[in-house]
Design a protein that fits this description.
InterPro entries: CBD, CBD_sf, GH, Glyco_hydro_5, MAN-like. It is an enzyme of class 3 (hydrolase). By secondary structure, the chain is α/β, with parallel strands linked by helices. The protein contains 12 helices and 23 strands. The strands form 7 sheets. The chain has an 8-stranded parallel β-sheet with strand order 16-15-14-10-9-19-18-17. Helix 11 links the parallel strand 18 and strand 19. About 10% of the residues have low confidence. The protein binds 2-acetamido-2-deoxy-beta-D-glucopyranose (4 copies). One 2-acetamido-2-deoxy-beta-D-glucopyranose binds next to helix 10.
C-alpha cells in the first residue's frame, strides 16, 4: 500500500464540500467533492479512483519513542551463526510453497512497514513476540528510508541521496535499526521480507532518487546514476544479512510502477536487479514486491488486469529465473473494483503461478479493515493451488516505550483485538487444521 502521506497527488482546486474520511475524492468519472475533511489528504491511486487518507501517518511511529537506539550489529552476527546451524537452512521454495524450517506448507504473515524505524529495542521485541505468539510467520518491513536532507539526530534514515555524494547511514539511527529488527526476528523465529525502494514518496522512494539524480519516476528504472546508487544501497543492506536465517526474501521495491512505459522496462530492470542480488547473496530468495497488475490470461478486462495499470506484465515477469516467487496485492476500494472481484484476482494469479511452477504470495490486502470481506480472501487463498501465503495490511500494536498505538491508516488490525481474532486467530486455526 502506498502507506499514507504518500504518492499523493494534491488536487489543486478547492471545492466547498469536503469528502469524509476514506471517501472517494476524485477519478475520471467522479463528480463529488474533491477536498477532504481535516487531517485527510486526497490521494490518487489510479486515474479512476482518488481516496481521502490520513495525512499525518508518517510522524506517528517515529516521533513517539524516546529510548536511545543501541548498537546491535554484533548481536546480529553472532546469533545468525547459531540459528543457521540449528535450523534446516534458509527459507526456500518447494514446489508451489515456501519451505521454512523444513516445513513446506501455507504460511500467513503481515506487514509492519515501520518496524525498522522504531528506535526502542523493546518495542521491536514486543512486536515480534506478539506476532510470533499468534502463529504468523512472515513479516514484511521497509528496508529503505531515503532522504534528500539529513534529518537531525534521533530521526531514523537509511540513505541520503545527492548528486554530489550520497551516504548510507550505518549508524545508530540508520541501518543499526534494521539490524535490530533482523536479530529480533531471528530470536522469535519470524521470517522477513525486506525491500529496497518505494515507488511512492513516503520514506523517500523513487522520488528521492529523481530529486538527486534527475529524470522522472519512469526513467528511474533505466537511469544509470539512480540505478548505480540503488545497487550500492542494495549491496550495503544485503551484505549485512547474507547468513541470517531470518530473511525469507529480498524484494526489489514496494509496488513498482512505470507510467507510460513499455512492459520491457520493468521486466529488464527486475531481471537485472534480481540477478545482481543473487550474485551478492545466493542464500536467499528474491521477489519483486509489485501489485500484480496485468496478468494477461484470464481476468475480466478491468483496469488492474491491464498492463497499463502498472506498466508491466505480471505474467511475463514470472519467467525471470532469478525471481523465486511472485507477489501481488489486493485493494478493490482503491482500484474501483468490488470485494467479490478480489476472488477472481486471487484465482487468476494462482493459475498463472501454477503454470509457471512458482509460488504466489498475496503480500498485501485491505478492505477498510472489514474482516467479513477479507477473511473470504484468506480462506480462498488457503484453498487455491498456487497460493503459498497471505499477509494482511497492516499490523498494529501498542508500543511499550510510549504506551501508544502504532499507525492507523484505515486498514490496521491491532494485536489481541476482536478484529485480530477474525483476521489472525481464526485463519491460523484453519491453516493448522489443513496442515497440522
Ligand atoms: C519521463 O521523461 C521521459 C523522457 O523525457 C518522457 O518521455 C516521459 O513522458 C516522462 N514520463 C513521466 C511519467 O513523466
Ligand atoms: C509511482 O508510480 C506511478 C507510475 O509510474 C507514478 O505515476 C507515481 O508518480 C509514482 N509515485 C511517486 C511518488 O513517484
Ligand atoms: C503458461 O506458461 C507459458 C510459458 O511457460 C506461457 O506461454 C503461457 O502463456 C502460460 N499460460 C498461462 C495460462 O499462464
Ligand atoms: C490478550 O487479551 C487477553 C484478554 O482479552 C489477555 O488475557 C491476554 O493477556 C492478552 N495477551 C497479550 C499478549 O497481551
Amino acid at each position: 500500500m502506498k502507506s499514507l502521506t504518500v504518492g499523493i497527488v494534491l488536487l489543486a482546486v478547492a471545492v466547498s464540500a469536503q469528502q469524509s474520511a476514506y471517501g472517494q475524492c476524485g477519478g475520471t468519472t467522479y463528480t463529488g467533492p474533491t477536498s477532504c475533511t481535516a487531517g485527510y489528504t486526497c490521494t490518487s491511486y489510479n486515474p479512476y479512483y482518488y481516496q481521502c487518507v490520513p495525512g499525518m501517518e508518517r510522524s506517528i511511529v517515529i516521533t513517539t519513542s524516546t529510548t536511545t537506539a543501541k548498537s546491535s550489529t554484533t548481536t546480529v552476527k553472532s546469533s545468525t551463526t547459531t540459528s543457521i546451524s540449528t535450523s534446516t537452512g534458509y527459507p526456500k521454495t518447494s514446489g508451489l510453497f515456501f519451505d521454512i524450517d523444513g516445513k513446506a506448507e501455507y504460511y500467513a504473515g503481515t506487514n509492519c512497514y515501520w518496524c525498522g524505524f522504531l528506535t526502542a529495542d523493546g518495542d521491536v521485541d514486543q512486536v515480534f513476540a506478539d506476532i510470533a505468539s499468534s502463529g504468523l510467520k512472515i513479516v514484511r518491513v521497509w528496508g529503505f528510508n531515503d532522504v534528500n536532507t539529513i534529518p537531525s539526530t534521533g530521526t531514523v534514515w537509511y540513505q541520503y541521496l545527492s548528486e554530489s555524494g550520497s551516504q548510507i547511514n550505518t549508524g545508530a539511527y540508520g541501518l543499526e535499526r534494521l539490524d535490530y529488527v533482523v536479530s529480533s526476528a531471528e530470536s522469535h523465529d519470524i521470517k522477513l521480507i525486506i525491500n529496497f525502494v518505494n515507488n511512492w514518496s513516503d520514506y523517500g522512494g523513487i522520488a528521492a532518487y529523481v530529486a538527486a539524480f534527475g529524470g522522472n519516476s519512469s526513467t528511474w528504472f533505466t537511469d544509470s546514476a539512480s540505478q548505480a546508487q540503488y545497487q550500492a544501497y542494495i549491496k550495503a543492506v544485503v551484505s549485512r544479512y547474507t547468513t541470517s536465517s531470518a530473511i525469507l526474501s529480498w524484494e526489489l521495491a514496494n509496488e513498482p510502477r512505470c507510467s507510460g512505459c513499455d512492459v520491457s522496462v520493468i521486466y529488464n530492470w527486475a531481471a537485472a536487479t534480481s540477478k545482481y542480488i543473487k550474485s551478492l547473496d545466493p542464500n536467499h530468495m528474491v521477489t519483486i514486491g509489485d501489485e500484480g497488475f496485468g496478468p494477461t490470461t484470464g481476468g475480466d478486462g478491468s483496469y488492474p488486469f491491464t498492463t497499463s495499470a502498472g506498466g508491466y506484465n505480471w505474467q511475463t515477469n514470472l519467467e525471470i529465473e532469478t525471481l523465486d516467487f511472485a507477489t501481488f496485492h489486493l485493494y478493490p476500494q482503491s482500484w474501483g473494483t468490488s470485494s467479490t472481484w478480489g476472488n477472481l484476482w486471487i484465482t487468476t494469479h494462482a493459475a498463472a503461478c501454477v503454470n509457471a511452477s512458482k509460488p504466489c504470495l498475496l503480500e498485501e490486502f485491505g478492505y477498510s479493515d472489514e474482516c467479513s470481506v477479507e477473511s473470504v480472501w484468506q480462506s480462498l487463498s488457503l484453498d487455491t493451488t498456487g497460493m503459498a501465503g497471505d499477509m494482511f495490511w497492516q499490523y498494529g500494536d501498542v508500543l511499550p516505550s510510549c504506551n501508544c498505538e502504532t499507525s492507523q491508516d484505515g486498514n490496521t488490525v491491532y494485536f489481541n483485538t476482536t478484529d485480530w481474532t477474525c483476521f489472525v486467530t481464526n485463519h491460523i486455526e484453519a491453516i493448522e487444521a489443513k496442515y497440522g
